[in-house]
Amino acid sequence: MRLVGDNIPEQGVYPLSKALAMAEELELDLVEIAATANPPVCKIIDYQKFLYQQRKKAKEQKANASKVVIKEIRFGPQTDEHDFQFKLNHAKSFLQEGCKVKAYVFFRGRSILFSEQGEKLLLRFAVELEDYGKAEQMPKLEGKRMIMMLSPNKKK
């Protein structure tokens, strides 16, 4: 096996028994780093410290990962122009913050007959927000709701 590391005198290929003896001499552990390599690569290190550093690195990556926030905006099939503009301004601010926007038209009772009106409303909403975000999915009817997802444009 190939031995690498900071605390060994000569890096090179050693038999397993010699590598284990060297690790025991230094009071450290022999850890296999790359098993698929030919010959396998091992390192003489403190295994507990190695595990601690891996956990710390994983925790750091998790903290740096971005969390997706979804904001919802609800319309009725006969939403007035002022209400539309008001909700449009909210959606703009949400998209500028980097949040996703879930816009939906909620149909009550027999208003489901106006589903094409709701679709027009959502399409208009997407067109008005083109500068801030793009539609992830086109409006689709799910039960009594017609839903459309918008995601923010990538920041340059």
Cα end-to-end separation: 47 Å
Number of helices: 4
Helix content: 25-40%
Q: What is the β-strand count?
A: 9
- Helix and strand string, N-terminal first? EEHEEHEHEHEEE
- Overall geometric form: rod-shaped
**CATH topological fold name of the largest domain:** Translation Initiation Factor IF3
Poorly predicted spans? none
What class do helices, strands and sheet pairing give? alpha+beta
Rounded to an integer, what's the Rg over CA atoms?
29 Å
Strand-residue proportion: 25-35%
CATH architectural label of the largest domain: 2-Layer Sandwich
Report the top-level CATH class of the largest domain. Alpha Beta
Q: How many distinct folded domains?
A: 2
CATH level 4 superfamily of the largest domain = Translation initiation factor 3 (IF-3), C-terminal domain
Rounded average pLDDT = 87
Characterize the biggest β-sheet.
5 strands, mixed
